[in-house]
Amino acid sequence: MSLIHQGPIYAATMNIVGEQRRALAIAVILFGASFIGNVVGPSAVGILNDALAPAYGEAAVRYSMLIVAVTPVLAGLCFWRASLLYRARLPAMS
Q: How far apart are the first and last CA of the chain?
């Protein structure tokens, strides 16, 4: 279930970009997702853990991971907003 969003993202990207730039567009999406998931995510947990450690001690790791786990909700809101813009502009792209 964690990858269920990828199909619609790739389909929307194919509708938006021109034929000559489709591979580049998918590469940028994959790079961005990998960078955020593999670099920013663990770093954010570490930074939050260091910031929360004085107040929560060993439980800081739990709270740091809980805070970072909320980010999919924010991503869902971004996808929802993007879907409204995409739907509004789709007739103009055809």
A: 31
